[in-house]
Amino acid sequence: xxxxxxxxxxxxxxxxxxxxxxxxxxxxxxxxxxxxxxxxxxxxxxxxxxxxxxxxxxxxxxxxxxxxxxxxxxxxxxxxxxxxxxxxxxxxxxxxxxxxxxxxxxxxxxxxxxxxxxxxxxxxxxxxxxxxxxxxxxxxxxxxxxxxxxxxxxxxxxxxxxxxxxxxxxxxxxxxxxxxxxxxxxxxxxxxxxxxxxxxxxxxxxxxxxxxxxxxxxxxxxxxx
Length: 225
Description:
By secondary structure, the chain is α/β, with parallel strands linked by helices. It has one domain (11-221): Vaccinia Virus protein VP39 (Rossmann fold, 3-Layer(aba) Sandwich), CATH 3.40.50. It is 31% helix and 18% strand. The protein is built from six helices and seven strands. It has a seven-stranded mixed sheet with strand order 3-2-1-4-5-7-6, with helices on both faces. Strand 1 (74-78), helix 3 and strand 2 form a beta-alpha-beta unit. It is globular, with a radius of gyration of 16 Å. It starts with 21 loop residues before the first helix and ends with a strand. Mean pLDDT is 92; it is low at 6-12.
């Protein structure tokens, strides 16, 4: 039985792989190889960062496992590209359902092929524009796909009543990875959606990986009423 990643009391000591079983880590390594192979045919990730897929893409995606998603939850990944962060998260959380969405057909076909090769049964790749996506989810995730205001608009469109969550889970809403100065982006989001709750968690406070300095987990949740 696989275990579930969870937050630690000492964030810098947290290892994205520590709570994963050997078979889950083996799947992540297989995904790393497949991502490299498919990236030669379809532009799934940057060729420059693709040279260090394990750290810059897979471990980066797994930072969203710092807190768990509750069992039975549905999570949509906007602009999944090569299946990031959806596939690493689907491997880490086999009891959570992931919807990997992208508007580019060739990318979706590649992600579907990877999912088949990995024999993952808790993730589906879907071709759709975010504005037209018609399924529902309790959570949205993303890696630098769009501004926060757009991501939140898309989440609100599909937001479903929340499943039961424990205190250590992510609050329902948007959980994404961002980099750089987010002041203007957060300001634009709060102007468009007054009252939303925004929290930034620097990855330097979560993991000790030099490549992640200046990057953050950003969560957006609805205002408490």
